Each structure stands twice: as structure tokens, then as C-alpha cells.
Design the sequence.
């Protein structure tokens, strides 16, 4: 099998203490649609679009890749349509690399109504079958796959590892993820163990189907397949999941699943102590500045998160001194940019007063301009981390940046 995919390490991050292991690194992922200089933040274009922003604008703000969602694209417009269009990049007029997640998280989270990160006291974990109290169950898991109801029209569908691979091959992203079961922190330890075994079984089926589809569709660009590490908050389960998936021929790994933000660095560290150094790791659904620093120093290479665009649509902007709401009255006559140190299109051309006006007037342009700034802010932040690894001053930059960004909350 000819794999047009590779990863090289350019510089290893020197540990901050003599006892720490060197996990962080700067590297390069090669894909059929171009290179990704890592560490890198990957904006989320769930439905083949970063909400409210042109692909050309995402390129201009120096994003290197976009991550879309297999579940949503399967339901609308359908993976067959994207395949006929020539694949995701061509369909959405995006010139660079693309990712798709497997759809497993969306199938299950929409099915039970819980968010990905749920911090709860372990003594309150009650049941294998968990549901948010105000939700109806839309997804049913068994050892073969997941049966679920569409959130769009109520129609019934079924995802198996094989179906997820088929859908993702039709979508045509450069990097795709194995189908996994994403549990919550409310599941019992016993259920987490069963789920881990199920996810490993599904991973083997994904590998088999991926290999068959790669041969069958040999006229298409190669798609790298990443296995997904689960195991919730348990060190032994996280390490077991990592060791199990290393035995399979994955091109890289995704770190996902239920976790408490306070445990993020510890969990990523456990995982990356077991995974091979020479393969890329993607930290799923992580995008806040402090979490990105933690992920980078513990060996994550790429990240995705909807936060930058989601908070923009709710009038929030990122700045050197933290996140703030630009709709408040204090900015009605503030004719300075969001961030006078920012080189994004929004900050170079528009003022807080104008953005404040757009928000109050409920103009759609507000979401566009704020999303451009927020995505640029996070993409540039992680790019700066990469440069600091190369220059040898990563931890100095981390201390300086976080000291200013979170000063109001300390």
C-alpha cells in the first residue's frame, strides 16, 4: 500500500524539569493536500464550512487544515454527493489538508444529551445506562455498532465501524478517525472497561475496512487513519487503550473521550508515554489557551475545537488580556481594534465600536468579523508555540502569555 502520508519531528521540546519526559515537539505532517507544520490548531468546519466565514478567509488567517464532521455530512448533503464532487477539499473550495472525525462522538453525545467533558465526583457515578434528565435516548449502542435517530428529521440510521469508514472514504479527507464509543464520566468503571474492549474491536474492523477501501479506491488520494484513545480518567485504561491500538497499523492517534479539564495534562502524558514517538497525535475538541499549552507540552501535535467560532457568534472576542464581550456599552465609542497587536483582517480594518454596532443591530457581519479574529488568535497562538519549541523558549512564552491572559481570573 503506497501511503502518501508521513510525519517528521523537527525539534523536541526540552522538559521544564529534570524529572519530566520530553513529550512535546515541533514537526511536519505530510498529506496529499499539503503540509501541516505542528503543533497546529485546526479550525472546525463541521458541515464543510467554518460558520459565517469564507474558506478563503480561513486560508488568509494562516490556518493549515480544516476538520469536518462525518456524522453531519453523512446526514446532509450525504457522503455520496461529496464523493461525486471530488472530495471534501474540492467540494468546499478549501485548498489544504482536511480531517474528518468518525461521527462517533456526535452519534453518542446527541443520543444521550451529555457534553464531552463532564466533571463529577466519582462517588456519584451510578449507572451504565446514563441519560441527561431532559433528553430522550436517540442512540443505542451494541457490540456491532450504533443505531441512532437523525436530529434533522427523526429518520433511523446505523453506524458501524465499516459504515464510518465507507462514509469517511467518500468524504475524502486526508486524515480520518476510527469509529469509537465515547463514554461520559457518569458511566461506571465496569462500563468503561466494556466500552474500551468494544472500541478496540471496532478499531480492528476499521483497519480492515480502511485497507479494503484504500485498495478499491486506489485512484483516490491516500487517507491516513488515526485510532482513538479512550479510557476516561483511569490511568490503567488509558494506558491499556494506547498499548492495544499500537498493535494495529494506524497512521496516527486521536486522544479523546471523557475527561476532567484538571486532568488533561496528566491523561495526555499517560497516553503519549505509551504511543510511538514517530506518529502524530491529535487532541480532539481542545481549544482554550491554557489547555493548548498543556496539550503541546505533553506531546499533542494537532488540535480542533469549535470554541473560537462559537463564542464569536455570542459576541466574545479573544485578546491578549483574556476573552471579553464586545457587545457591552463600554465599547460603543471605542474606535480601537479588538487587539492592537493582532494582524488579522478584522483588527486591521474594523473597530470595537463598529463591531459593537453590528452586534446590537443583529447584523450577520458581526459573526464573520469576530470569527476571523478569534480563529486567527488561536491559530497564531499555537503557531507561536511551535516557533518557541524551535527557539527553545516555550516555557518562558507560556508563563508570559498565560500570566496576561488569565490575570483577571487569578
Sequence:
Amino acid at each position: 500500500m503506497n501511503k502518501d502520508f508521513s510525519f517528521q519531528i523537527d525539534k523536541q521540546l526540552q522538559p521544564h524539569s529534570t524529572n519530566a519526559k520530553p513529550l512535546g515537539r515541533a514537526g511536519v505532517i505530510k498529506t496529499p493536500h499539503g503540509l501541516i507544520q505542528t503543533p497546529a490548531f485546526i479550525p472546525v468546519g463541521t458541515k464543510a464550512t467554518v460558520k459565517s466565514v469564507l474558506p478563503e478567509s480561513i486560508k488568509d488567517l494562516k490556518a493549515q487544515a480544516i476538520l469536518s464532521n462525518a456524522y453531519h455530512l453523512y446526514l446532509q448533503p450525504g457522503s455520496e454527493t461529496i464523493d461525486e464532487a471530488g472530495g471534501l477539499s474540492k467540494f468546499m473550495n478549501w485548498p489544504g489538508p482536511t480531517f474528518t472525525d468518525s461521527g462517533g462522538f456526535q452519534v453518542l453525545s446527541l443520543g444521550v444529551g451529555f457534553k464531552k467533558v463532564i466533571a463529577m465526583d466519582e462517588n456519584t457515578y451510578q449507572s451504565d445506562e446514563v441519560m441527561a434528565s431532559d433528553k430522550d435516548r436517540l442512540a443505542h449502542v451494541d457490540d456491532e455498532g450504533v443505531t441512532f435517530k437523525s436530529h434533522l428529521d427523526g429518520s433511523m440510521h446505523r453506524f458501524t465501524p465499516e459504515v464510518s469508514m465507507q462514509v469517511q472514504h467518500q468524504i475524502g479527507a486526508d486524515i480520518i478517525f476510527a469509529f469509537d464509543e465515547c463514554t461520559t464520566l457518569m458511566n461506571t468503571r465496569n462500563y468503561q472497561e466494556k466500552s474500551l474492549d468494544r472500541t478496540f474491536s471496532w478499531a480492528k474492523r476499521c483497519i480492515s475496512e480502511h485497507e479494503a477501501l484504500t485498495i478499491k479506491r486506489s485512484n483516490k488520494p491516500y487517507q491516513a487513519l488515526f485510532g482513538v484513545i479512550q479510557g476516561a480518567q483511569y490511568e490503567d485504561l488509558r494506558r491499556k487503550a494506547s498499548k492495544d491500538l499500537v498493535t494495529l497499523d494506524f497512521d496516527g492517534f486521536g486522544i479523546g473521550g471523557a475527561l476532567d479539564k484538571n486532568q488533561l495534562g496528566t491523561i495526555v502524558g499517560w497516553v503519549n508515554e505509551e504511543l510511538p514517538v514517530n506518529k502524530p497525535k491529535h487532541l480532539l475538541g481542545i481549544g482554550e489557551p491554557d489547555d493548548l499549552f498543556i496539550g503541546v507540552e505533553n506531546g499533542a501535535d494537532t488540535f480542533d475545537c469549535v470554541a473560537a467560532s462559537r463564542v464569536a457568534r455570542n459576541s466574545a472576542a479573544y485578546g491578549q488580556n483574556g476573552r471579553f464581550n464586545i457587545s457591552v456599552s463600554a465599547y460603543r465609542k471605542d474606535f480601537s481594534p479588538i487587539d492592537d497587536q493582532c494582524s488579522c483582517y478584522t483588527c486591521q480594518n474594523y473597530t470595537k465600536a463598529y463591531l459593537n454596532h453590528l452586534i446590537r443591530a443583529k447584523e450577520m457581519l458581526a459573526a464573520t468579523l469576530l470569527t476571523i479574529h478569534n480563529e486567527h488568535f488561536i491559530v497564531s497562538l499555537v503557531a507561536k508555540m511551535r516557533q518557541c519549541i524551535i527557539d527553545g523558549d516555550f516555557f518562558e512564552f507560556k508563563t508570559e502569555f498565560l500570566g496576561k491572559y488569565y490575570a483577571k481570573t487569578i
